[in-house]
Each structure stands twice: as structure tokens, then as C-alpha cells.
Amino acid sequence: MEVWPGRAYPLGATFDGSGTNFAIFSEVAERIELCLFDEAGVESRVELTEVDAYVWHGYLPRIQPGQRYGYRVHGPWDPARGLRCNPAKLLL
User: Fold this and answer.
1) Widest CA span of the chain, in angstroms?
2) Pairwise CA distance, residues 81 & 84, whole Å
3) What is the pLDDT of residues 31-79, one digit of tens each?
4) Does 87 sit behind a cis peptide bond, omega within 30 degrees of 0 on the bond before it?
């Protein structure tokens, strides 16, 4: 799947008429995957590799409004310090 760098802002999913920019904030993430789901619920993962000021982002051409998606955040797991990154959990 084609992924372009995109923009850090605005946060969330923003459709521009040709594709969608995805941006999510995390101070502690080591890696973030954007998970796209088709009509049958089959998941495709795209790694967001661009990071600006703790905002992970990417632009996917041809992704339309109504696309089902979530994020998997990889990073530290230390609940005592409020760190709960768990890529086994899908963030909606």
C-alpha cells in the first residue's frame, strides 16, 4: 500500500478529496501502525514512519471517508508510570 509522509496537523483522519492524512500524538511510542479494515474485517497494517513533535503521521492516497481504521502503538509497558503501550490492543 502506498504511503506518503503526510502532515502532522490536524490530528486525526483528514480527507482532502484525493486521499486521507492520518496523524496521532504520542510522547512515548516507539512505533505506530495504522490498521485498515475492509468490508470483511480483514486487517491491513501500515507503519507510520514520519514523526514531528511527537505526532506520527502518514498520507494514504485513495483512502476515502468511511474507511474503518485503528492504531496499534508499540512502546513501553509500565502501568505504574502511566505507560500502557500494547500493540495487541487496537486503539479506535
Assistant:
1) 43
2) 9
3) 999 999 999 999 999 999 999 999 999 999 999 999 999 999 999 999 9
4) no
Which residue from 13, 3, 2 is spatially nearest to 48, judged by alpha carbons?
Answer: 3
**Could you give the domains of the chain?**
12-84 (2.60.40.10)
SS3 (DSSP) at 23: strand
Contacts of 54 by beta carbon, 8 Å cutoff, 6+ apart: 25, 26, 27
pTM beyond 0.90: the answer is yes
pLDDT digits (tens, 9 = 90+) for 5-44: 999 999 999 999 999 999 999 999 999 999 999 999 999 9
Inter-residue contact 71 to 81 (CB < 8 Å): no
